[in-house]
Request: fold
Amino acid sequence: MPDKIRWGILATGAIAKKFAEGLAVLPDAELVAVGSRSQASADAFGDTYKVPHRHASYEALANDPDVDVIYVATPHSMHKECAILCLNAGKHVLCEKPFARTAAQAREMAAVARETGRVLMPAMCLRFLPEWVWVKAAIADGRFGKVLAARFRRVAEPPGWGQQNFLDGVKSGGALLDLHVHDTDFVQFCFGRPRAVRSAGY
Reply:
């Protein structure tokens, strides 16, 4: 087992930059490669975060022999194809939310992970936060009484944080996939798989 897990980041947008900042403070992680659709973007990202390997294509990153695991940070609409690309290249994959556009896509991704023997995981970091773990235990212990419903309120995202895709249906924008995926995951984390799902627009 290596002393450090060697990471590659696929794409160079806002969430990729946040992830690179997070990796920098982990003693058992090392950011060794980045892949973009242009050399200029890969080089700019590499200069900022001191990444030694800069690739001008996602395929080149997927096939980099010095990478153990790849964080997929592309727009939502590309998650499935990029995750499968990396899995087939023998890499473990951490895929940004939403994991896929549909359940069928998620099942296809999971099937490739099983076939290749690689780890494929959605990047739902909130499940690992101590406060989420505490709330789940408190609900199970009945400290809040019997919970009958959960309501969520969202404010606008900070400028530049994915706003360009938020209303683009082709790129899987919209409230459910872009913002409320954390809310729905929180409910399942605390209560398990729902027996039924209802939705309403207003």
